[in-house]
Write a structure and sequence with these properties.
The chain is an alpha/beta fold. The protein has three domains: 45-215, Alpha-D-Glucose-1,6-Bisphosphate, subunit A, domain 3 (Alpha-D-Glucose-1,6-Bisphosphate, Chain A, domain 3, 3-Layer(aba) Sandwich), CATH 3.40.120; 231-461, 3-Layer(aba) Sandwich (Alpha-D-Glucose-1,6-Bisphosphate, Chain A, domain 3); 464-573, TATA-Binding Protein (2-Layer Sandwich). The chain has 20 helices and 21 strands. The strands form four sheets. It has a six-stranded mixed beta sheet with strand order 1-5-4-2-3-6, sandwiched between helices. Strand 9 (308-312) and strand 10 form a beta hairpin. Helix 4 (67-85) crosses helix 7 and helix 9 packs across helix 11. The chain is globular.
């Protein structure tokens, strides 16, 4: 009998198996031959504790997200806190988003934490991930747990883990938590009280409106470049027309509160996507990076003649925008384009308002726009470069704090729609990003221009740049093997040229000494201002290829990008 069938039988034999999970297994076992792939996928391994936590398909099985894998993970976190951190009176903050079972999983995590003698603060309602990080830091917690699968499809949920610094668990911490988890039996290994018992414990408290207001108060401090005393900007803000969608997630309340405090003139929220709904009925892939998720918002944008469209993902740490062009058309911006607008705006307005620190520092990830480097150099800003993942930007902020240079930090961003201007949290913040975009839009409106035109101004000043992301999905066991083979090809083939461009250098972030933590990423630096990076996603069954090109003209930049995209299209080469 294969190992996965042994694990399946263990679940079948467990007498107290959750009723809904039991019904799911019974349904699959009515025709085991037809459902063999689903059964094997569910039981062939334990759900991996990877980049900052767990993420997986909801359902029965050791490789699925359910109350038992949540309990096992939380016991691993509790053992890590007690045995590795050895803190006196340790505490953990717990939050959750709108996904299916998110509230249930937050309660289950709290039940395990309380049973382990750990002070537990749990949000009383769903709330954005950056709000969880704010609470973690406010209460001085050792760790935080956020139940979310971010922007994944509705069938997923997840379990993000944060350290005391406020950024997602480091690779070292994740490894130790995994080791603790592996010692926990899936059914009987976790200490646990009921949620009723947990709520009665002196170790448990709900996080309520007070912390939510403090978080919004702190976010509003990032509007340091706009005040009501600036009459032109204030008038433009009062005339600004905004379209907003929270994509059925957690962003509606805090982002609408920000818009109210800014006194934005007209706010139109996509009604079908305003209320929390883990089924995401109008946006099956609730990711503001994808045009399909924003189709209803684009329709409302056009109907209302809005100046700006803003969309946040379910846990409201990512934010995407669309702008109106000079000719009046709707244009979706990439994460890199929005990052360029933000960085330029921050620099100009810090200088204008005498708020630029003496030694300003910005941070980007290795897959983000290289044009940021030019802008930073031209403005005497020290640019730090990190691995992919906002936790590395958060880590950089904490290092600055330890050096007494926290006030030097002015901006951090990653191309996947993650931005942060303040240091009050150490993760990307969609509420903070929305605030900044509203200020950007008001400034452009006051100047009688558009953000599309502002982006063109940046390109004309610093040079043109283009970034393309190619996603290739590889589901299941065979997909994992195929991704591994492709990574090995890029690692070992070492061609002299690609798409007619000479290969100047290949950087293997897994095996080369780069000064950064080891990571399964390959970078090809080609002649001219172009190149690409290849990496497996840390949160989805995807292989990602990030292409970057640049030159003094848009035509050359675009042409080079298209040639590289064609040369690197894995699907066409199958």
């Amino acid at each position: 009998m294969s190992d996965w069938k042994k694990e399946l039988n263990k679940w079948i034999a467990y007498p107290d198996l959750d009723v809904l999970l039991k019904e799911e297994l019974e349904r699959l076992l009515l025709d085991p031959a037809a459902n063999a792939d689903d059964l094997e996928e569910s039981f062939f391994k334990d759900l991996e504790f990877g980049t900052g936590g767990l993420r997986g398909v909801l359902g029965a099985g050791s490789n699925r997200l359910n109350i038992y894998t949540i309990r096992k993970a939380t016991q691993g976190v509790a053992d890590y806190i007690k045995k590795e951190l050895k803190a006196n009176n340790p505490a953990v903050a717990v939050g959750y988003d709108s996904r299916v079972n998110s509230r249930l999983f937050a309660e289950e995590a709290s039940c395990v934490l309380v049973a382990n003698g750990i002070r537990t603060y749990m949000y009383d309602t769903l709330y954005p991930a950056p709000g969880l990080v704010y609470a973690l830091r406010h209460y001085g917690c050792e760790m935080g747990i956020m139940i979310t699968a971010s922007h994944n499809p509705a069938k997923y949920n997840g379990y993000k883990v944060y350290g005391a610094g406020g950024y997602q668990a480091t690779d070292e911490a994740s490894k130790k938590i995994l080791e603790k988890m592996q010692q926990v039996d899936i059914f009987e290994g976790a200490l646990r009280v009921s949620f009723d018992e947990a709520q009665k414990s002196p170790l448990f408290s709900f996080i309520g409106d007070e912390i939510k207001q403090l978080y919004i108060d702190r976010v509003m401090q990032e509007a340091i470049f706009w005040t009501e005393s600036d009459k032109e900007i204030a008038e433009a803000m009062g005339n600004l027309k905004v379209t907003y969608t929270p994509l059925n997630g957690t962003g509606a309340q805090p982002v609408k509160e920000v818009m109210k405090r800014l006194a934005i003139g007209e706010i139109n929220v996509v009604k079908e996507q305003e209320e929390p709904d883990g089924a995401f009925p109008t946006c099956p892939y609730p990711n503001p990076e994808n045009k399909d998720a924003l189709l209803l918002a684009i329709k409302l944008f056009e109907e209302t003649g809005a100046d700006i469209l803003v969309g946040t993902d379910p846990d409201c740490d990512r934010m995407g925008i669309a702008v109106r062009t000079k000719s009046g058309e709707c244009r979706l911006l990439t994460g890199n384009e929005t990052g360029l607008l933000m960085f330029d705006y921050i620099i100009r307005n810090r200088i204008k308002n005498n708020k630029m620190p003496n030694d300003p520092i910005a941070v980007r990830t290795i897959v983000s726009s290289r044009l940021i480097d030019k802008i930073a150099a031209a403005n005497n800003i020290d640019l730090k470069i990190t691995l992919t993942g906002f936790k590395y930007i958060g880590e950089a902020i904490e290092q600055l704090e330890r050096m007494g240079k926290e006030s030097s930090y002015i901006f951090g961003y990653e191309e996947s729609y993650g931005y942060l201007t303040g240091t009050y949290v150490r993760d990307k913040d969609g509420v903070n990003a929305s605030l900044l975009v509203f200020c950007l839009a008001a400034e452009a409106k006051a100047k009688g221009t558009t953000l599309d035109c502002e982006l063109e101004r940046i390109y004309q000043k610093y040079g043109y740049s283009r970034n393309d992301l190619m996603n290739f999905t590889f589901e299941g066991i065979s997909g994992m093997r195929e991704m591994d083979a492709i990574m090995e090809f890029f690692r070992t083939s070492r061609p002299a040229e690609i798409a007619g461009k000479k290969v100047n250098r290949i950087i293997d972030y897994k095996n080369d000494d780069t000064g950064l933590p080891k990571s399964n990423v390959i970078e090809y630096i080609l002649e001219g201002e172009c190149g690409f990076l290849v990496r497996p996603s840390g949160t989805e069954p995807k292989l990602k290829i990030y292409i970057h090109t640049g030159s003094s003209t848009k035509q050359e930049t675009d042409a080079t990008a298209e040639i590289l995209k064609k040369a690197l299209n894995i699907q066409e080469k199958k």
